[in-house]
């Protein structure tokens, strides 16, 4: 059996999906060593991993893309944060390898410094992406803007223009610090993020079709393994849940700072007179002055599984983890994207007809209520997506691929 060192960015939305895969590898007898954000170290140790916190200087570099005044600027701010973290990650992963003496390494897709060190480190390694990676695929729009797939010449022209105007601008922020670090490591530069991410001998993506377009073909080194759902915490439903006698609408916000608490306020108002009970989770913290109302419950964090078992819809901020978690249980979704990859998630929901999309700038009680009602009619689409996720083979298939292609066993 092997010792596997996993390294994640400081985000719970990244730590939990990769840990679902690591749980399966541990179940197979492998030893798992994890470096992750400090608040998740107790969770990781509870799962049976050897876990320590990443360099605290990485966590101090806050993801501040919510300050962006438009979608393009928000993307630039977000990737600039990953770039500033990269040198600390590079040293931190090297230290972790020296301490753990692993047989193989698994690195979060957002850890650009750790990815570069893994590439030159001499150990077998792979990359894990808990969201749709910005890879190129024929007929698939460039990542970042949430563009609807458009076939034919018109689509090719539009996609080429988007790459030239927006994607190159964002890559202009991404690539210089990556290539500066790569030069320090005596490894050649990369010209695009697609080229950088394809350096991984194996890239495991926590998703599947038809949520991802069925025509998505990223090549043999990239494998979709479903949403990798992990719901740590008590397995039993919370006591207050048994007192709710209506169908549930789950409303979620980001675990990282983002100006999305308006989603909860609007959902409470929108659904106040509907025959449902709204349960809202705000893992980044409950804002001052937010009141629940008669048919609503507010929580900072609660395992979503028991809620989704009774849910007729999930209203999400477009986080890949919770959106796919709902769809994995065939619960249709209404997505209100605010930034990051959330525009891509919202568009995929709409195209796969497993839910609805409402831009945050159009958020209002009447509009949200209409979109939730529409989403609740789309159970068939949610069931198709759930079946597609199951067909990937999930974490079992992911562990098999890791053993075969990285560890050279199985």
Runs in which pLDDT lies below 50 for 5 or more consecutive residues are none
Number of strands: 13
Q: What value does the Rg take, in angstroms?
A: 21 Å
Major beta-sheet overview: 7 strands, parallel
Number of helices: 14
Per CATH, the superfamily of the largest domain is Glycogen Phosphorylase B
Count of distinct structural domains: 2
Structural class: alpha/beta
H/E element sequence: EHEHEHHEHEHHEEEHEEHEHEHEHHH
Percent in helix? 40-55%
**Mean pLDDT across all amino acids:** 90
Explain how this protein is built.
- It is a single chain.
- This protein has 14 helices and 13 strands.
- It is α/β, with parallel strands linked by helices and 410 residues long.
- Strands 3-2-1-4-5-6-7 form a 7-stranded parallel β-sheet, sandwiched between helices. It has a 6-stranded parallel β-sheet with strand order 10-9-8-11-12-13, with helices on both faces.
- The model has no long low-confidence stretch (mean pLDDT 90).
- β4, α5 (112-120) and β5 (125-129) form a beta-alpha-beta unit.
- It folds into 2 domains: 3-226 and 392-407, Rossmann fold (3-Layer(aba) Sandwich), CATH 3.40.50; 239-389, Rossmann fold, CATH 3.40.50.
- It starts with a strand and ends with a helix.
What is the fold's blueprint, element by element?
Blueprint: E1 3-7, H1 12-27, E2 31-36, H2 41-46, E3 50-53, H3 56-60, H4 71-100, E4 104-108, H5 112-120, E5 125-129, H6 152-184, H7 193-197, E6 203-205, E7 222-224, E8 248-252, H8 261-270, E9 277-281, E10 296-299, H9 305-308, E11 311-316, H10 320-328, E12 333-335, H11 342-352, E13 355-357, H12 365-375, H13 379-391, H14 394-407
Parallel strand pairs: 1-2, 1-4, 2-3, 4-5, 5-6, 6-7, 8-9, 8-11, 9-10, 11-12, 12-13
């Amino acid at each position: 059996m092997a010792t596997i060192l996993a390294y994640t960015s400081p985000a719970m939305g990244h730590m939990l999906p990769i840990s679902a895969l690591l749980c399966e590898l541990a179940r197979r007898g492998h030893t798992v060593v994890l470096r992750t954000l400090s608040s998740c170290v107790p969770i990781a140790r509870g799962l049976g991993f050897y876990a320590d916190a990443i360099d605290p200087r990485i966590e101090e570099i806050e993801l501040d893309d919510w300050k962006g005044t438009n979608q393009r600027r928000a993307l630039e701010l977000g990737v600039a944060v990953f770039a500033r973290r990269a040198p600390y990650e590079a040293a931190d992963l090297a230290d972790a390898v020296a301490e753990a003496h692993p047989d193989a390494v698994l690195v979060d897709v957002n850890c650009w410094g750790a990815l570069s060190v893994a590439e030159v480190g001499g150990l077998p390694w792979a990359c894990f992406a808990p969201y749709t990676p910005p890879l190129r695929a024929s007929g698939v729009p460039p990542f970042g803007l949430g563009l609807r797939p458009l076939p034919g010449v018109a689509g090719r022209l539009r996609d080429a223009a988007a790459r030239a105007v927006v994607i190159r601008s964002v890559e202009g922020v991404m690539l210089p610090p990556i290539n500066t670090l790569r030069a320090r490591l005596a490894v050649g530069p990369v010209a695009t993020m697609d080229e950088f991410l394809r350096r991984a001998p194996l890239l495991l993506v926590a998703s599947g079709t038809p949520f991802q377009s069925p025509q998505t073909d990223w090549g043999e080194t990239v494998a979709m393994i479903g949403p990798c759902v992990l719901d740590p915490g008590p397995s039993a439903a919370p006591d207050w849940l048994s007192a709710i006698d209506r169908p549930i609408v789950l409303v979620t916000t980001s675990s990282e700072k983002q100006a999305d608490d308006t989603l909860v306020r609007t959902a409470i108002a929108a659904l106040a007179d509907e025959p449902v009970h709204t349960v809202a989770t705000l893992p980044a913290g409950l804002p001052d002055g937010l009141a629940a109302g008669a048919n609503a419950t507010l929580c900072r964090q609660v395992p979503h599984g028991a809620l989704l078992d009774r849910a007729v819809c999930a209203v999400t901020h477009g986080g890949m983890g919770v959106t796919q978690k709902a769809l994995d249980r065939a619960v249709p979704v209404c997505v209100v994207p605010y930034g990051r990859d959330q525009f891509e998630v919202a568009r995929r929901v709409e195209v796969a007809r497993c839910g609805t999309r409402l831009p945050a700038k159009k958020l209002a009680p009447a509009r949200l209520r209409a979109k939730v009602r529409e989403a609740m009619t789309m159970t068939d689409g949610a069931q198709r997506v759930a079946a597609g996720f199951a067909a990937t083979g999930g974490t079992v298939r992911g562990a098999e691929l890791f053993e075969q292609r990285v560890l050279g066993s199985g």
